[in-house]
Specification:
By secondary structure, the protein is mainly α. It has six helices and no strands. The longest helix is centred in the C-terminal third of the chain and has 40 residues.
Length: 149
C-alpha cells in the first residue's frame, strides 16, 4: 500500500477516535512531541500506557475479588490509571475512572465491580484501536525506511 494511503488510513483512524470520544486534546499534544529525531515517540507512549493499564486492571480485579476489599488500595490504582489515561488523552477511560473513584470513596463493592467492568470496556475499546494505529505506524516507518535506502 502506498505511503500516502497508509498515512490517510492512520489519519482517518485517529479522527474517528476523537469523534468517538476515545481521545481528547492531550493526545494531540503527544503527537506534537513526535518529530524526526523521535519517530516512535507516540508508539512508545501508547505501548507503555497499555502495559501499565493491563497491570493495573489485573491488580484491581484481584483486589475486588477479596472478601474484604481494601478500598484505599483500589482507589490508589484507580487514581494511577486515571492519571496515565489523562496523560495519553484516553478520555473515556479517564471518565470511567472518575466514576470508579466515587464508588471507592463510598466503599461500594458492587459499584466498584460495575465501574471496573466499564473501565475495562473503555480500555479494551481503546486498546483495539491503538493496536491498529501501531500497526499502521509500523508500516509507515517501514515504508519510509525502504524509501531512504
Amino acid at each position: 500500500m502506498p505511503l500516502m494511503a497508509l498515512r490517510e488510513r492512520l489519519n482517518v483512524l485517529v479522527n474517528s477516535m476523537f469523534l468517538e470520544g476515545l481521545l481528547d486534546q492531550q493526545f494531540r499534544q503527544l503527537q506534537m512531541l513526535q518529530d524526526a529525531s523521535s519517530p516512535g515517540f507516540v508508539a512508545e507512549v501508547i505501548t507503555l500506557f497499555c502495559e501499565d493499564s493491563e497491570r493495573m486492571l489485573t491488580e484491581l480485579t484481584k483486589l475486588l475479588d477479596q472478601a474484604v476489599v481494601d478500598y484505599q488500595k483500589v482507589d490508589a490504582y484507580v487514581h494511577q490509571l486515571k492519571g496515565s489515561s489523562s496523560s495519553v488523552g484516553a478520555q473515556n477511560v479517564k471518565l470511567a475512572c472518575i466514576q470508579f473513584k466515587q464508588f471507592c470513596e463510598e466503599n461500594n463493592k458492587e459499584g466498584c465491580l460495575s465501574a471496573l467492568n466499564m473501565v475495562k470496556h473503555q480500555y479494551y475499546s481503546l486498546r483495539s484501536k491503538f493496536d491498529t494505529m501501531l500497526q499502521l505506524e509500523q508500516r509507515i516507518q517501514a515504508y519510509d525506511s525502504e524509501q531512504q535506502n
